[in-house]
Amino acid sequence: MKLTRRTVATLSGLLLGGLATTAGAQTKWDLPTAYPANNFHTENLAQFVKDVDAATGGKLKIQIHDNASLFKAPEIKRAVQGGQAQAGEFLMVNFQNEWPVWGLDGIPFLATSYDQSMKLYQASKPAVQKKLAEQGMVLLYAVAWPPQGIFSKKQVASAADMKGIKWRAYSPATARIGELVGAQPVTVQQAELSQAMATGVVESYMSSGSTGYDTKTYEHLKFFADTQAWLPKNAIVANKKAFDALDQATRDGLLKASAEAEKRGWATSEKKTGEYLDLLKKNGMTVYPPSAQLKGDMQKVGETMLKEWIDKAGPEGKAVVDAYRAAK
Fold first, then answer.
1. Which residue positions does the secretion signal occupy (predicted)?
2. Which of 34, 88, 153, 309 has the fewest CB atoms inside 10 Å of its own CB, making it the most exposed?
3. Which helix (H) or strand (E) holds 118?
4. Is the four-CA dihedral 152, 156, 208, 34 of positive or negative sign?
């Protein structure tokens, strides 16, 4: 019988799903992520795993599977929900079609700084925790990406300059942006982005300086408009059954390490924002502030998307936005 990686992961989930058998028994978890080992999110995860080991006295061991090696980006949330992996990291905006609130931090110009993004996170956190509980998961922590800008072959002065270009979409929100500016959205996850640019499948996209550097975008696209349009977040979650099977001391240690990882991750993301832009410049990319026209055009896109989002999200979504605005 040939075992596929998913079969192995499923068997691992069944056998190692956090079901401690005796006092002092070691529990092993798998944690898939879509990002490479040198990405700051993954580096933060690596420190988190070390902290969990220390905080639990070695009783909980977590194995990171980076760069979509165990599950592809769109599969990770479902893998944790179904117990094929005990924990995992996913980009929240990718799941907006499943539940509108997942896509809240992908709306252009709703939250454009780390301070605003944290306030948006705090406003939405109770709803997120409730949804995850309904789906059999527990939120461990979440960390924002650096602010998003526009990568392109030529400098973009207005939304009209993006009409007809092949636009990489990695979420429903980025696909909608492409539609609203008249681009041609093509769904491409980060692990396939370099090849997509090399083969001409993608000519432009919106993401952070981090993604631009990790994927060597500067080898294919030479311009980055630093629009600082939004700061999407990655959520690190655990399967609730696996979490509940841990003894109280181990759960406490895991949550302590999670709180530290969240604080460290946000600080690192903010610190690295400028570093990534410098690295893009050093590799030949022109980084420029958006023109007044481009910023105005993108703000109109954001206003349209926020209205559409509230219509879909209903009272639950409106309550989150109202809480955020009250905290601003």
1. 1-25
2. 153
3. helix 114-134
4. negative
Q: Are strands 166-169 and 204-207 parallel, antiparallel or unpaired?
A: parallel
Encode the chain (328 residues) as per-residue pLDDT tens digits.
445 555 555 555 555 444 443 445 899 999 999 999 999 999 999 999 999 999 999 999 999 999 999 999 999 999 999 999 999 999 999 999 999 999 999 999 999 999 999 999 999 999 999 999 999 999 999 999 999 999 999 999 999 999 999 999 988 899 999 999 999 999 998 889 999 999 999 999 999 999 999 899 999 999 999 999 999 999 999 999 999 999 999 999 999 999 999 999 999 999 999 999 999 999 999 999 999 999 999 999 999 999 999 999 999 999 999 999 999 8
Cβ–Cβ contacts within 10 Å for residue 50, how many?
A: 12
Residue 314: is it exposed, middle or buried by C-beta count within 10 angstroms (0-12/13-18/19+)? exposed
Considering the entire predicted model, what is its pTM? 0.85
Same domain, 128 and 154: no
Q: Tell me the angle at which helices 248-282 and 114-134 cross, rounded to the nearest 10 degrees.
A: 140
For 163, residues 6+ apart whose C-beta sits below 8 A from its C-beta are 181, 182, 183
119 Cβ contact list (under 8 Å, min separation 6): 111, 324, 327, 328
CATH code: domain of residue 84 = 3.40.190.170
Tell me whether residue 108 is in a domain: no
* Whole-number Å distance between alpha carbons of 99 and 3: 33
| Contacts (Cβ under 8 Å, ≥6 apart) of 206 | 148, 149, 150, 151, 174, 177, 227, 229
Chain center to CA of 97:
15
